[in-house]
Amino acid sequence: MDQEEIWAALETERRGLADLLDSLPVDAWEQPSLCEGWRVRDVAAHLAIATRVTLPWALAEFVRARGDFNRMVRDSAVRYAAGRPIGEIAGQVRESATSRRRAPTTKPLDPLFDALVHGQDIAVPLGVERAMPLDAARACATHCWERGFPFYPQRRLRGLRLVATDVDWAVGDGDVVEGPIQALLLLLSGRPAALPSLGGAGAAALVTRMA
Questions:
Q1: CB 198 within 8 A of CB 185
Q2: Quick one: which of 48, 50, 69, 165 has its CA closest to 111?
Q3: CATH code, 134-210
Q4: Distance between CA 172 and CA 161 in Å, rounded?
Q5: How do beta strands 170-172 and 160-164 pair?
Q6: CB of 119 within 8 A of CB of 13?
Q7: Cβ atoms 139, 109 nearer than 8 A
Q8: Complete DSSP assignment for 68-79
Q9: How confident is the model over 143-202, as pLDDT tens digits?
Q10: How many CA atoms lie within 13 A of 17 on its CB side?
Q11: Between 192 and which of 26, 76, 164, 210 could a Cys-Cys bridge form, CB atoms 3.0 to 4.6 Å apart?
Q12: Cα(first)–Cα(last) distance of the chain, in Å?
């Protein structure tokens, strides 16, 4: 995908996420997401922050988290969520749809990856069907595999070959793990919720690895 295609896909995804958030009952915002220790409210806040991050703010949050990147991301989202009504958070996600700003140090596909995966973090535990666009999911799967940080899929999934069954996409070497590209993207990003949608000779090994 070129940059304009990425922006177009991201705008569509963010608008869809805002629609999803607007449709949720109040109690759903307090339900656990697929991210351990994150409520739906916190994931939504993380998405709302995406186009508002500045370098000084990010550095201050990193220091506050004592250099722990994952803690920084979670804690900043939790604090942001705690201080705002859900309508404001959903509105900020919608406002971000046409933004062309990226958080410091992020790559062109990172915001789209975030929107796709965090959309599932919200939808799956609430029993909401939310299909990823195939081309966008494939591009983000390749991006996640090649970039490494912060999920390091090539290390975690060494000895396995991942093969999509709905698009032309495959990476890795070894026993085959196959399934829809949407499930493979969740697998690459460390979400055990992907496991029921995956099969192949290498699928059994994933239960231990994801644990």
A1: no
A2: 50
A3: 3.30.1050
A4: 4
A5: antiparallel
A6: yes
A7: yes
A8: -HHHHHHHHHHH
A9: 999 998 889 999 999 999 999 999 999 999 999 999 999 999 999 999 999 999 999 999
A10: 34
A11: 210
A12: 33
Q: Where are the domains of the chain?
A: 3-126, 134-210
| Two structure tokens written together for 104 | 């410091």
The two tokens of residue 54 are: 């500045």
Tens digit of each residue's pLDDT (9 = 90 or more) over 51-84: 998 888 888 888 988 888 888 889 899 999 997 9
Q: Is 24 helix (H, G, I), strand (E, B) or coil?
A: coil
* Structure token pair of residue 143: 């991006």
Strand partners, 160: 175
Q: pLDDT of 11-54, one tens digit each?
A: 999 999 999 999 999 999 999 999 999 999 999 999 999 999 88
**Contact yes or no for 41/30 (Cβ under 8 A):** yes
Beta bridge partners of 164: 179
